[in-house]
UniProtKB/TrEMBL annotation:
It comes from the Eukaryota. Belongs to the glycosyl hydrolase 13 family. GlgB subfamily. One of its GO terms (biological process) is starch metabolic process. One of its GO terms (molecular function) is 1,4-alpha-glucan branching enzyme activity. Residues 69-163 are annotated as: Disordered. It comes from Durio zibethinus (Durian). This is 1,4-alpha-glucan branching enzyme. Its EC number is 2.4.1.18. Residues 348-708 form the Glycosyl hydrolase family 13 catalytic domain. One of its GO terms (cellular component) is cytoplasm. Pfam families: Alpha-amylase, CBM_48.
């Protein structure tokens, strides 16, 4: 792996284990190091001095020794889809108020117009320089104009009565006490947000005040770290001197510093330079990547990532050119992963995905692409699910502007772009993640065992915390606002909604499983809030929840008393196909298949799939492998006859997808490569792993051979 930013390219060593807490207080160099100043020659480049969206990227070609017959019918070996589917008790009573609405962000085409409005008192301390300047601050990567224009108001409807769900499903009346309590708590939090924050619309713009923001006179950096005893901003810009830029803390635990521009008018922190926050915490001195960082990279010879101050010159910022498509009547989703989308054993880039994979997706008949592993994650083999930097797009694949170019190209092709967002848990990493950020166990997460997911080895958010709500709601809005994603697939929602996280529990459909002490009401309320915010501000946006439990009201509007998702992933369908493929043909019961495909709640839409990325991972088997196994390698070539096993496998592979699409739900999903029966599994590069009991799980010597998609094998 090689990473760079505007000129310098950083080869990266794989990180394969959880980092323990340590300090970044190594010897300070007298010469400030900027990631923008030097060039080195490496064999593979992701970031270039000239962004990749400014030039055509070459196509990837791989010579294949054999062309194969595949269970498709198109010239690229894939079946083209038809248009058939188209016909919280812990909330503080005195929550932190950190908004300062001296200005209101408005979007006019791709410019943010700033219009002066009546000021609301802020509890954040203001430096004299800022107070004198009276300059509105804006998030990085935004074009700013002080020209006054008329606002395009966007509002989130007030809470409804929350009673319509009982008309839709009278069975819920038996659990009215729990459901009405849930809705009452939701209404209370909405009212408190209105009272203390100016409404959910303002509350969800935390990125305009926290993290790095810039005005004409300088840069302001704010960080919520109530457990820290002292804090200082350090980086290349001040030679990592912890005594140079000391931060001040307000009564709500927010640390702040203002860095005025240099004498020549340039910003105090150069674009592309490394930054961290140095804190004296109850756990000792520690340097952390800012929680709201917008970009991070892994430097040569280092394992932890470094936060990057990302604020390129205006001429280098990508400007969106194409409107976002309208939401289709039904979704046909192509689930994808940028890094493994190459035919070669490498980490692919946003640019190559844009140029080589998006046209394929469009040609196959899909109307949406769902992209995994966007949020930065230091451990590649986590599939993007152990997030370390929630506001930063993964630097493995390119720059933030490269990602914007990818999304804009998808919109040009008429494709919705859905992001696989992870708000169900976070990486355990201390050095480059949120874990123990301010030196305490209960900062963003629950303390003790409640804050640890024993199976995923990750941290669990405290959805009853005011500032956690601000962080997560703002995170969802950031990706919609800044990158123009068209919606989300929320990962691990079942784990969020229950204190048992859905582990070692068999959901039978009995309503007592959904409305009782095992339900994490605070997490459900967060899901209601985020759906409220998304659908209120972005009416065309799509939200899909990964829920295996079958939670009633999951896909009903929040105003009616529901959780608010547009779709639920119909996860039982894939399990049913695997169950059947283990049986003899004569034991398949058509009635049982039809029941599973059509067994979904009234008025709650589902996205069905025969298989997703889960079935493609090493240790599992895809449908093609279940059907044809090792015969795929010997009897699918054009220069030799096939076998009855291959003929049967190709036929059933198509039929399974046809009936799943026709009966399984109001939307359909396929993981990239599975449409033509990809012959190999997914195995991320990894080393040997030693378990606590002393046993060792063998690795693959950090090989990328099985971490790619062999599109070159199709005919």
């Amino acid at each position: 792996m090689i990473y760079s930013a505007s000129g310098i390219r950083l080869p990266c060593v794989p990180s394969v284990y959880r980092f323990s807490q340590s300090s970044f207080n190594g010897a300070r160099r007298n010469i400030s190091f900027s990631l923008l100043l030097k060039k080195d020659q490496f064999s593979r480049k992701i970031f270039a001095q000239k962004s990749s969206y400014d030039s055509d990227s070459s196509s990837l070609t791989v010579a294949a020794s054999k062309k194969v017959l595949v269970p498709g019918g198109q010239g690229d070996g894939s079946s083209s889809l038809t248009d058939q589917l188209e016909s919280p008790s812990t909330i503080s009573d005195d929550p932190q108020v950190i908004h300062d609405v001296e200005s209101e962000k408005m979007q006019d085409d791709e410019k943010v117009e700033v219009e002066e409005q009546e000021s609301v008192p802020s509890v954040l301390p203001n430096n004299d320089e800022e107070a004198c300047a009276k300059e509105p601050s804006v998030p990085l990567n935004r074009k700013v104009s002080t020209k006054k224009s008329e606002a395009k108001p966007r509002s989130i409807p007030p809470p409804g009565a929350g009673q319509k769900i009982y008309e839709i499903d009278p069975t819920l009346l038996g659990f009215r006490e729990h459901i009405d309590y849930r809705y009452a708590q939701y209404r209370r939090i909405r009212e408190e947000i209105d009272k203390y924050e100016g409404g959910l619309e303002v509350f969800s713009r935390g990125y305009e005040k926290l993290g790095f923001t810039r005005s004409k006179t300088g840069i302001t950096y704010r960080e919520w770290a109530p457990g820290a005893k002292s804090a200082a901003l350090i980086g290349d810009f001040n030679n990592w001197n912890p005594n140079a830029d000391i931060m001040n803390q307000n009564e709500f635990g927010v640390w702040e510093i203002f860095l005025p521009n240099n004498a020549d008018g340039s910003p105090a922190i150069p674009h592309g330079s490394r930054v961290k926050i140095c804190m004296d915490t109850p756990s000792g001195i520690k340097d952390s990547i800012p929680a709201w960082i917008k970009f991070s990279v892994q430097a040569p010879g280092e394992i932890p990532y470094n936060g990057i101050y990302y604020d390129p010159p205006e001429k280098e910022k990508y400007i969106f050119k194409h409107p976002q498509p309208k939401r289709p009547k039904s979704l046909r989703i192509y689930e994808s992963h940028v890094g493994m989308s190459s035919t070669e054993p490498i980490i692919n880039t946003y640019a190559n995905f844009r140029d080589n994979v998006l046209p394929r997706i469009k040609r196959l008949g899909y109307n949406a692409v769902q992209i995994m592993a966007i949020q930065e994650h230091s451990y590649y083999a986590s599939f993007g699910y152990h997030v370390t930097n929630f506001f930063a797009p993964s630097s493995r694949f390119g720059t933030p502007d490269d990602l914007k170019s990818l999304i804009d190209r998808a919109h040009e092709l008429g494709l919705l772009v859905l992001m696989d967002i992870v708000h169900s848990h976070a990486s355990n990493n201390v050095l480059d993640g949120l874990n123990m950020f301010d030196g305490t166990d209960a900062h963003y997460f629950h303390s003790g065992s409640k804050g640890h997911h024993w199976m995923w080895d990750s941290r669990l958010f405290n959805y009853g915390s005011w500032e956690v709500l601000r962080f997560l709601l703002s995170n969802a809005r950031w990706w919609l606002e800044e990158y123009k994603f068209d919606g989300f697939r929320f990962d691990g929602v079942t784990s969020m909604m229950y204190t048992h996280h859905g582990l070692q529990v068999a959901f039978t459909g009995n309503y007592t499983e959904y409305f009782g002490y095992a339900t994490d009401v605070e997490a459900v309320i967060y899901l209601m809030l985020v759906n409220d915010m998304i659908h209120g501000l972005y009416p065309e946006a799509v939200t899909i929840g990964e829920d295996v439990s079958g939670m009633p009201t999951f896909c009903l509007p929040v105003q009616d008393g529901g959780v608010g998702f547009d779709y639920r992933l119909h996860m039982a369908v894939a399990d049913k196909w695997i169950e059947l493929l283990k049986k003899r043909d004569e034991d398949w019961k058509v009635g049982d298949i039809i029941h599973t495909l059509t067994n979904r709640r009234w008025l709650e839409k589902c996205v069905a799939y025969a298989e997703s990325h889960d079935q493609a991972l090493v240790g599992d088997k895809t449908i093609a492998f279940w059907l044809m196994d090792k015969d795929m390698y010997e009897f699918m070539a054009l220069d030799r006859p096939s076998t009855p096993l291959i003929d049967r496998g190709i036929a059933l592979h198509k039929m399974i997808r046809l009936i799943t699409m026709g009966l399984g739900g109001e939307g359909y999903l396929n993981f990239m490569g599975n449409e033509f029966g990809h012959p190999e599994w997914i195995d991320f590069p990894r080393g040997d792993q030693q378990l606590p009991n002393g046993s060792v799980i063998p690795g693959n010597n950090y090989s990328y051979d099985k971490c790619r998609r062999r599109f070159d094998l199709t005919i």
